[in-house]
Structure formats: structure tokens, C-alpha cells
DNA sequence: TATTACTCCTTACGTTGTATAGTGTTCTTC
DNA sequence: GAAGAACACTATACAACGTAAGGAGTAATA
């Protein structure tokens, strides 16, 4: 490994994120690349979850040992950071045109779809200001829409925070719903019976929760998915109404 | 372990969540309890993060072996679920009175403070419909406020989702900010230099992001904390404005 | 009193991330 | 061209993890 003038791992991680890692000048030619490793790891995460991404598993996929990966990447944590930034590249595209409300809704939906394609994103620790280029590009895209719409600078962080939040929450519910539909109806019936046995007063203690659950279960054959969809667009509409009320 | 009539682990987890696990009728008296184990585990998580909560560490704290914990709790995952529900008990209190906007803001702030006290909540996987009593109580509290305010039933899931989202996002930023202020100013300067070396065109590529970051760094000696605070109340205000616009 | 159900402990297994050391390859320098 | 530095990769090893299996001791039941 090259020396990094004492700048530590933060510098190394930034270099990797921005594809600016210096290529080696001597020694045997590398048999793979950071990009290939990250792509492979993403593939594993997509199909087996983040816990499936072990150094050994990634190495095996590339016909290499786990330890050889440490030539490219300083450790598993950084690999996950790189994966996180890399998938955000899927959202890069032409700038949105049209009405800003529509643009924001589209932005939100695209981000949510990203989370659906890569559910493991929800397992990645959020306490991590990575500053990767693709993640940053996504944020910048939203800020541009807000700026173009004439939303006051002071309000933009709030809107941004709220939108990200709503998208992630919606993605969570969608992932949950998918996992749950795998379980089958029998599992649900059993669980409901168990809950009743353990908390017979559930409906009395939590009438509002039960009312909403019942309301949602009436809306079609995929109740959870539909409910998630509705509360997603509903929440965004609400937020944008608030923004608009503020602009006046 | 008692047999659970083939109902599996879901039943066992629900019993533990609701404190309805049957106490043993024979054998030596138990030297600890589920509650003590959960409390101990929460203490460890508070001070060392969720990764510090190992079966061995919890056992050590209670002068017991890791394996003895399996008498009380079927495994680490369920222990984490119990921890998650348990801390939500800290929010139980008298129902809020006064204007509903104020009540919702208070609810949100209390939840955010819970996340601040227990930052590891953000590390807990959200893809998990636990149905624990304390978590449910918190949700029910919010729904009651909404119902009392006359917010339409159809809108409540949206508002709920958005509020939870905003709170969690704000907590994330607060946790980040705390972790970052530990790092000291030198670390930040170094990191800024590294970013400039790696992405000299950062300010040109992401002008809106940079503008906001600059704006936020002007607002006092704890820029991150203040920014988080502002975007938190800002986002909620925005959302409630939207709700109000909808009620008309 | 014998049996049963239970708690707790010891031991052990497989898996993880990664430190260390060694082998062989390629570029640089003399 | 030869020597040596810089590198890629492998093999081995270690500590820590969750937890399965088995056994010793204890208390209620029959």
C-alpha cells in the first residue's frame, strides 16, 4: 500500500470514492479492480443481503482469496461505503424538467425505486458522512429543483431532510411488505392468534392503531404494498403543500 | 425450554415482549431475569454501541456465562428486539393537552430525545414489525393526537410515516454531529484538504450543496447541531402546514 | 424416593474480519 | 544487465462471535 502522508484512512476512503486511487507502478499486474470488487459485492448484497457480503464470499466470486481484496480496499467497512455510493450512480440522468412538484415527486420515486432494487441500503449505517460523488449528485439534483422552484434557501434543508426521510421510510415498508408476503397467509393467521393470546386487550389499548390497520387491510389483495404506496405519495403531497403555503 | 405447541419463535418473541413468558415451575431458582438482561444490554449499547452487545459481554456484566442467557432469551436477535421495545417505555406519560400542533411537536421532540439517549436505535434494522407494547404505545399516542385534531383517517398514515421519518433523520444528524465534534477541528481541516485534493471541482459540480453547507457553518459555534435543530422543526412545521391546508 | 423439569456451566464448532509472513513478479536504479 | 525496491497474491493464524450439545446439580412432583 502506498503511503498517504499520514492522512490516514479518511483520505484513502475519499480517494476510492472518487476513483482517484493511484494505480501501482511496480509489481505484478492486478488481477481485478476496485470497481469489479464493488460490483460483485453489490450483486451479493442484492441477492443475499448485506450479511452475505463477507470478504471470503466476494473473493470466491472473483476466484481470489479474501486477503487479496485488502490490496484494493482497506477493509469491509470501506467496501460497504463504496457500495453505497456506487448504487447511487443508477440515479444519474438528465435534469428534470416541468413543474417542480412533479419533478420532486419523480425524484422521490426514483430514489425509492433504488432502495427497492437494493434493499440492503436500509441496513447500511446512516451515521456516516461519506461525501461520495454519486450520493452527492443525487442530493444536488434535489437542491437544484428546489432552487429552480424558488424555494427559500433557509427552507431547503428542511425539505431535503423530510424528503429523504419519507423515501427511506416508504422503502422500509415496501421491503417489509415483500418479506412478509413471502411468509404466506398461514404465518399471519398464526401470528394474529399468538398476539391475541398474549395481549387480549390489544384492541382496547390501541384502538387508533387497530382502526388504521383494519382500514388498510380492506384495500385490495396486497394491502401492505398499497398502504405503503398511499402513505408515500400522501406524505410527499403533504410536505409540498406545506412548502407552497410557505412560499406565499 | 417449554414447548410452544409448534408456534415457533414468533410466539416466543411476542410472549417476551409482552412479559407473558411462563415462569418455570421446577428446577433451581433463576439467578437473573429477562428484564435485568435487557436493561444490562441497553446499558452496554448506550455506552459502546450495538456491536458491544455480545452475549458474552452481557453475561459478564451479570456474572454469568453467555450460554446461561439462552435460558431467558432465544438468541441475540430477539434480545435486540426486546431492547428496542423496552426503551420506548421511557416515552410513556400523561396524554398531551393543548393545541394539536404543539402536541405533535412535543411528541416529535420526545421521540428524538429518545434516539439521542439511545443512538444505537438507529442501528437496529427497521425491517421488523415487532408489535411490542411500548413501541405500539408511542404510535398510538401520536394517532390519538391526530384523531383529536380532526385529521382525516385517510391522511393519518401519511402524517405518521412522515413524522417518524423526520424524527429518525434528525436523530441521525444529531448522532453524526456528536460523533463528529469528538473528532476535533483538526480532523475536519484534514478532511477538507483531502476532499479538495481528490475532488478539486467539488464546488463547481455541487454548487447548491456547497451553498447550503456554507450557510449552515455560519450559524454559530456548533454548526451541525444548530443546522440539525433547524431542519427538524422546519420539516415538522412544513408538514403540519400541509396537514392544515388539507383540513380546510 | 424416583422422576422430571429446570438452571447453569463447560466445551466445542463454524464463521467472521483481518494481522502477519512469505513467495513470486515487475519496474526502477545502478 | 543485475540488484533491489515496490508491489499482488496466498497461506496460515488468531481472537471474537453466535450458539449447539452435553452434563452436573437443584427443586418440585409423583
TrEMBL record, chains A, B:
Signal peptide: none annotated. Keywords: DNA-binding, Transcription, Transcription regulation. The keyword Transcription applies. Residues 95-246 form the Tetracycline repressor TetR C-terminal domain. InterPro entries: Homeodomain-like_sf, HTH-type_TetR-like_transc_reg, Repressor_TetR_C, Tet_transcr_reg_TetR-rel_C_sf. The keyword Transcription regulation applies. This is TetR/AcrR family transcriptional regulator C-terminal domain-containing protein. It comes from Kribbella alba.
Amino acid at each position: 500500500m502506498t503511503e498517504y502522508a499520514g492522512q490516514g484512512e479518511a483520505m484513502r476512503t475519499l480517494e476510492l470514492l472518487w476513483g482517484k486511487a493511484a494505480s501501482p507502478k511496480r509489481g505484478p499486474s492486478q488481477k481485478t479492480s476496485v470497481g469489479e470488487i464493488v460490483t460483485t459485492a453489490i450483486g451479493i448484497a442484492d441477492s443475499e443481503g448485506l450479511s452475505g457480503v463477507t470478504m471470503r464470499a466476494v473473493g470466491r466470486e472473483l476466484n481470489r482469496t479474501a486477503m487479496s481484496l485488502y490490496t484494493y480496499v482497506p477493509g469491509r467497512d470501506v467496501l460497504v461505503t463504496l457500495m453505497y455510493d456506487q448504487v447511487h450512480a443508477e440515479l444519474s440522468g438528465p435534469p428534470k424538467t416541468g413543474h417542480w412538484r412533479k419533478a420532486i415527486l419523480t425524484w422521490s420515486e426514483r430514489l425509492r425505486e433504488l432502495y427497492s432494487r437494493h434493499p440492503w441500503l436500509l441496513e447500511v449505517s446512516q451515521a456516516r458522512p461519506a461525501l461520495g460523488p454519486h450520493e452527492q449528485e443525487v442530493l444536488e439534483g434535489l437542491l437544484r429543483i428546489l432552487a429552480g422552484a424558488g424555494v427559500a434557501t433557509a427552507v431547503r434543508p428542511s425539505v431535503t431532510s423530510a424528503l429523504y426521510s419519507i423515501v427511506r421510510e416508504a422503502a422500509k415498508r415496501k421491503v417489509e411488505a415483500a418479506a412478509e408476503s413471502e411468509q404466506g397467509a398461514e404465518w399471519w393467521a398464526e401470528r394474529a392468534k399468538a398476539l391475541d393470546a398474549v395481549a387480549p386487550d390489544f384492541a382496547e389499548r390501541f384502538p387508533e392503531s387497530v382502526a388504521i390497520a383494519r382500514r388498510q387491510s380492506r384495500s385490495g389483495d396486497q394491502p401492505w404494498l398499497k398502504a405503503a404506496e398511499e402513505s408515500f405519495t400522501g406524505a410527499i403531497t403533504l410536505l409540498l403543500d406545506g412548502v407552497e403555503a410557505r412560499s406565499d
